[in-house]
Amino acid sequence: MEKIDHANKQGGKAWGELKKKQEEYLDDENKAILEEDLYKDEEDLEEKLQQYKKQFIEYDVDHSNDLDITDVKFMMEKLDQAKTHLEIKKMIAEVDTTKSGTITYREFLAMMLGPKSSVLRIILKFEEKAKLAANGVDRPKGPPPKKTFDDLP
Ligand SMILES: [Ca+2]
Fold it and tell me: Residue 31 is part of which domain span?
């Protein structure tokens, strides 16, 4: 697949075409995953696959169907979790079962839905919860943060 420069995100028509193609490809992948009965114990799997598809497209900036170092770096910056090049390499290696140096959609799903935890998954799950809370869906439980603005002198 043709590579597009990350600096040129407003790539216009070519970009839109790529994104459309990617969405079709990921829809097919989701369908295949449902047919293959992967993650069959997962609740609301169809809904979750839709969510993960959107997330994957959002972070796969060049729509190459894999998350490489640049994509993950961008993802972490977007989540206010800036990491070094080496840290990102390690984070990818944790979930890159094919050892390609990138995260494919299947690996992304295995990371989010599989039994194994990873740094990237913890960060993304946290982000998921924070988003839901912001929408008033499911407020995070547990004690409130100790310091509030009222504590400031
Ligand atoms: Ca990519």
Answer: 11-138
